[in-house]
Amino acid sequence: MDNIDRRIIETLQQDGRASHAQMARELGLSEGTARRRLAKLLQDKVIKVAAIPDPERLGYHTSAFIGLQVDPSRVEAVADELSELTEAEHVSITTGSYDIFIWVNLTSSEALASFLHNKVGIVQGIRHTETFVSLETRKRALGAGLL
User: Fold this and answer.
1) Which residues contact 117 (CB under 8 A, 6 or more apart)?
2) Residues 64, 105: Cα–Cα separation, whole Å
3) Residues 50-61: what's their mean pLDDT?
4) Which whole-number Å values give the CA distances from 62 to 44, 66, 95, in the listed order?
5) What is the 3-state secondary structure (H, E, C) of the chain?
6) How would you classify the pairing of strands 126-133 and 88-93?
7) What mean pLDDT do residues 44-66 have?
8) How confident is the model at residue 84 (pLDDT cuts 50, 70, 90)?
9) Could you give the angle at the alpha carbon of 14 between the alpha carbons of 11 and 19, nearest 5°?
10) Closest CA to 101 of 139, 75, 123, 71
11) Measured between alpha carbons, how far is 90 from 103 in angstroms, rounded to an integer?
12) pLDDT tens digits, one per residue of 98-133
């Protein structure tokens, strides 16, 4: 990956709908070069183009990080099980006080309580959870700062 690839990625991070022609103009490339470079980045799975929704505008008014302490022998299985939950936007196995963190967006605090009791609470191997409710989101960007 070179500087041109990085600039294509930066362009798409600012406008995921940028056309090949627009990228070519902004980067001083031919349209064919922009198209080929983008196709290669996608094919090599360096990037994927996706929409980043605003949960608040979609009716999801409660966002939370949930830290989970898990039996050591169950960490990977629990992470896999949590990854299957549609509410889980992000699931990470971590170091530190918690073995796993999940990020969820839900419609209300009542929906969060139900999620914790009826979905997370029944997963075998979870010993303890701590929920951190987001009061305000100042930045929502996937992959920002990687270049």
Assistant:
1) none
2) 7
3) 87
4) 35, 12, 26
5) CCHHHHHHHHHHHHCCCCCHHHHHHHHCCCHHHHHHHHHHHHHCCCCCCCCCCCHHHHCCCEEEEEEEEECHHHHHHHHHHHHCCCCEEEEEECCCCCCEEEEEEECCHHHHHHHHHHHHCCCCCEEEEEEEECCCCCCCCCCCCCC
6) unpaired
7) 90
8) very high
9) 55
10) 75
11) 5
12) 999 999 999 999 999 999 999 999 999 999 999 999
Tokens coding 86 = 């549609």
Both structure tokens of 6: 């990085």
> Tokens 């997963």 appear where?
123
**What tokens appear for 14 in the block?**
């600012």
Beta strand pairing call for 100-106 and 88-93:
antiparallel
Tokens found for residue 75: 């960490």
